[in-house]
Amino acid sequence: MEASSHCHLDFKAQLATWHQFAYMRKATTNVDVFSFGVVVMEFLMGRRPTGLEEENGLPITLPQLVQKSLENGIGSVLQIIDPLLASNVSKNEGVVEDLLKLAFSCTCLVPKDRPDMDQVLSSLSKITKWDQIKTAIQMPIGTRPIKPGLGE
Predict the structure, then answer these.
(1) Residue 52 backbone zone (phi > 0: left; psi -120 to 50: alpha; other: beta)
(2) Is the Cβ–Cβ distance between 36 and 106 less than 8 Å?
(3) Which of 40, 81, 85, 110 has its CA at 20 to 30 Å from residue 93's CA atom?
């Protein structure tokens, strides 16, 4: 999943989209996916989705901030993570980056370009399984967890 700029327009367009969701009160799965992406960003970054400013004082949204960070590499991604999570992130940089990529794709302004919730779940499963595989590989053989029913 790559950060794609075609999904994200300027700040005014994003605000218009959010206001549309808030005031149309039309519950759709596309709105759910968008909201999921925003919540994941808020959780990982410890920030609100609006009211942010760039160094130059211009307004920026969470998706725009994530997009910029993803384009600039893992070092930039780690700089936007909530400091309370940062101490644990160094062990799981790839997982955090993958979660931000997924969240970013969920906030695409063009609803048809967003993943559906089945695709989101599939992506989350792959991220989780890969993290578990990496952890198992890094653990000494005698300390690897044994699943019930296997090797007992």
Answers:
(1) beta
(2) yes
(3) 110
Distance from C-alpha of 98 to C-alpha of 39, rounded to nearest angstrom:
15
pLDDT digits (tens, 9 = 90+) for 81-111: 888 877 777 667 888 889 999 999 999 888 8
Please report the sign of the dihedral spanned by the C-alpha atoms of residue 57, residue 60, residue 64, residue 70. positive
Write down the number of H helices and E strands in the chain: 7, 2
DSSP 118-132: HHHHHHHHHHHHHHH
The answer to whether 124 touches 102, Cβ cutoff 8 Å, is yes
pTM: 0.70
The structure tokens listed for 30 are 């596309």
The answer to whether 85 touches 46, Cβ cutoff 8 Å, is yes
Q: Which residues pair with 52 in a beta bridge?
A: 60
Tokens encoding 85:
């999570």
Residue type, 47: R
Residue with tokens 């949204």: 61
Q: Rounded distance, CA 38 to CA 34, Å?
A: 6
